[in-house]
Amino acid sequence: MAVRPIRLFGDPVLRRRAEEVVDFDAELRRLVADLTDTMLDAPGAGLAAPQLGVGLRVFTWQVEGEVGHLVNPVLDLSEEVQDGPEGCLSIPGLVYDCRRALRAVARGFDMHGEPLVIEGTDYLARALQHETDHLDGILFIDQLDPEARKAAMRDIRQADWFGLEQPTVRVSPHATGGLGF
């Protein structure tokens, strides 16, 4: 469909909890296509709707050649954890070790409203958690230990993209009846 601009750290939409999807219609399918195209173009391992300025609970992922999407996700996480490098398309060029659950089971729906369950370990589990966090207004740097978070904030302030003007956003798609394009 279309490659769209990715919202960067500092954009308020990245800090708001996204709304549940209630309409599984052509607009949602267009959003999933745009998320997928933008993620693949970036390239990234995942992309959530708020990163495109759309306040809906939808994300896409690409792990080990598998591309998928999930609407209205709910996660069940293992108690066993993993530490590993993590980055974010909304915080470009910066990677930090982040602790995540080793396994995740994500339940939600596909773009047609059909129930969907995705089970992942390692990198897929990390991607599912990272993207679901985006839908709750949480960035991966919020998951870092205090020392790493302080370093991340310093690096963000020094990044050449920090403070650039961002596109206008409609956070609630229901305010105008559309998806906030």
From TrEMBL:
Catalytic residues of the enzyme: 131
Co-factor note (free text): Binds 1 Fe(2+) ion.
Keyword annotations of the record: Hydrolase, Iron, Metal-binding, Protein biosynthesis
Binding positions for Fe cation per the UniProt entry: 88, 130, 134
Cofactor: Fe(2+)
Domain of life: Bacteria
Catalytic reaction(s) noted: N-terminal N-formyl-L-methionyl-[peptide] + H2O = N-terminal L-methionyl-[peptide] + formate
Record InterPro entries: Peptide_deformylase, Peptide_deformylase_sf
UniProt xrefs under CDD domains: Pep_deformylase
GO molecular function, one term: peptide deformylase activity
Broad EC category: hydrolase
Family according to the record: Belongs to the polypeptide deformylase family.
Function summary: Removes the formyl group from the N-terminal Met of newly synthesized proteins. Requires at least a dipeptide for an efficient rate of reaction. N-terminal L-methionine is a prerequisite for activity but the enzyme has broad specificity at other positions.
Protein's name in the database: Peptide deformylase
Native species: Nocardioides taihuensis
